[in-house]
Design brief:
This protein is mainly α. Among the domains are: 75 residues, no CATH class; 94 residues, MazG-like (Helix Hairpins, Orthogonal Bundle), CATH 1.10.287.1080; 40 residues, no CATH class. The chain is built from 14 helices and 5 strands. α4 crosses α7, α6 packs antiparallel against α7 and α11 crosses α12. The chain is extended, with a radius of gyration of 28 Å.
């Protein structure tokens, strides 16, 4: 069974309709809705005999869910599916707006940039853990949680009386930055970009020009974890021709750690990631030794040095 040439499925999220589907909607004999789409977008809900009608007539099904049975049936019968990348972001922004607006969630309405700081940090670390674990479902979920923080902070900023801005202002600034720092993609070419390494260098050059920074370490987030901070400072100063012999000496534990992090970064390694990997492996070995001791009838809380060594995992 093949559907009529003019039949199509249009996916909508929130209030966004794909631009490419507008002409189809106008030309369709009937427009039906399904999958949670706003009924006002169509003439009627999808009928039981939708597929039979679609064979002989140019109809359009508007759905908020590609997995909806009616949408899936038309798609399987050859109907093209029209979607727009990013419409889910619009729907998410609308949900956040409703939560923060009068009549929404009391807790959401009370939050400030300061009160939300802890959640931003927590969600970023949970995302990092999902990446390290290779957990795809968790990765998708944690990306959503980090996105929520962006939407939340932008919605709070919208209410600022002195300097308000919206999520669209945030997105517009990001688009301008991405386009401006990729002239080899959006401006017909850039002879300074030949590969990924030269692009990274070019990115920093363009950033320096945009922000008119006076120091090679301007813009480095000093609040990041100390090991990552040391590596970033070493990377930034190396690009400015900083000599390695002027790195902090070895007169303290902090200086030795800084030097080690700097040398690792300049050698192309990620000291923060390397240390996290070793720490995670150490934690796993501790649990394995404790489990082995427990299986042998020993209370892990009472193990001495020799007992620890006897149950320590072999590598």
């Amino acid at each position: 069974m093949t559907v009529h040439r003019g039949t199509a499925v249009v996916l909508v999220r929130g209030e966004t309709v794909p631009a490419a589907a507008v002409a189809l909607l106008r030309a369709a004999k009937r427009v039906y809705t399904a999958g949670g789409a706003d009924p006002a977008l169509g003439d009627a809900p999808a009928p039981a005999g939708l597929l039979d009608e679609a064979v002989t007539s140019p109809i359009v099904l508007v759905s908020a869910d590609a997995a909806d049975p009616a949408a899936a049936a038309l798609s399987a019968a050859g109907a093209p599916v029209h979607d727009t990348l990013g419409t889910g972001l619009v729907a998410a922004a609308l949900v956040m707006d409703r939560l923060r607006s009068p009549g929404g969630c009391p807790w959401d309405a009370e939050q400030t940039h300061e009160s939300l700081r802890q959640y931003l940090v927590e969600e970023c670390f949970e995302l990092l853990e999902a990446i390290e674990e290779g957990d795809r479902p968790a990765l998708r979920e944690e990306l959503g949680d980090v996105l929520l923080q962006v939407l939340f902070h932008a919605r709070v900023a919208q209410e600022d009386t002195d300097d308000p801005f919206t999520i669209d202002d945030v997105a517009d600034a990001l688009v301008a930055k991405l386009v401006g720092r990729h002239p080899h993609v959006f401006a017909g070419g850039d002879p300074a970009v030949r590969d990924a390494r030269s692009q990274e260098h070019r990115w920093e050059e363009l950033k320096q020009q945009e922000k008119r920074r006076e120091s090679s370490v301007d813009g480095v987030a000093l609040g990041q974890p100390a090991l990552a901070l040391a590596a970033k400072l070493a990377q930034r100063t190396a690009r400015a021709g900083f000599p390695g012999d002027l790195l902090p000496g070895h007169d303290s534990v902090g200086a030795r750690l800084f030097d080690l992090a700097a040398l690792a970064k300049l050698a192309g390694q990620d000291p923060e990631g390397e240390l996290r990997s070793v720490a995670r492996r150490f934690a796993a070995d501790v649990r394995a030794a404790e489990n082995a001791a427990r299986a042998a009838g020993i209370d892990p809380a009472r193990m001495d040095h020799d007992t620890w060594r006897r149950h320590w995992p072999a590598r």
